[in-house]
């Protein structure tokens, strides 16, 4: 006998017909403030090239430079698009004070203020 059919239907918890959609957002946070939240269109594949050319170059860095008067040290977490070769090359060429991925902490929620600021 199926366990589900053995329980009266009025006692069953009704399941959702659909799951809520996720939202992808990118924001930079520092001691001087945070950038605008930049929402990524549904279905966009955020690889290293998209991340560096669209989010960093066109969204986050203009905000970061304005917020910090151009004086900042940039560090990321270990998301694949952040570790991508194209992203690292972009950062090495465009960010004077960039902390290399080899010295990023492996999984430190304390160093990811975005998780607490959004």
Describe this structure in words.
It is built from five helices and four strands. Strand 2 (29-30) and strand 3 (33-34) form a beta hairpin. The mean pLDDT is 79. The strands form two sheets. A two-stranded antiparallel ribbon has the order 1-4. It has helices spanning 3-6, 48-68, 80-83, 85-94, 114-117, and strands at 24-26, 29-30, 33-34, 38-40. Helices cover 36% and strands 8% of the residues. The relative contact order is 0.15. It has a domain at 24-104. The chain has 118 residues and is mainly α.
What's the mean pLDDT score?
79
Distance between the termini: 48 Å
Q: What is the structural class?
A: mainly alpha
Number of strands: 4
What layout of secondary structure does this protein have?
Elements (H helix, E strand, L loop, with lengths): L2 H4 L17 E3 L2 E2 L2 E2 L3 E3 L7 H21 L11 H4 L1 H10 L19 H4 L1
Antiparallel strand pairs: 1-4, 2-3
Name a few traits of the molecule.
single chain, 118 residues, mainly alpha, two-stranded antiparallel ribbon, 5 helices, 4 strands
Q: What's the gist of this structure?
A:
The chain contains five helices and four strands; from the N terminus they run αββββαααα. It is mainly alpha-helical.
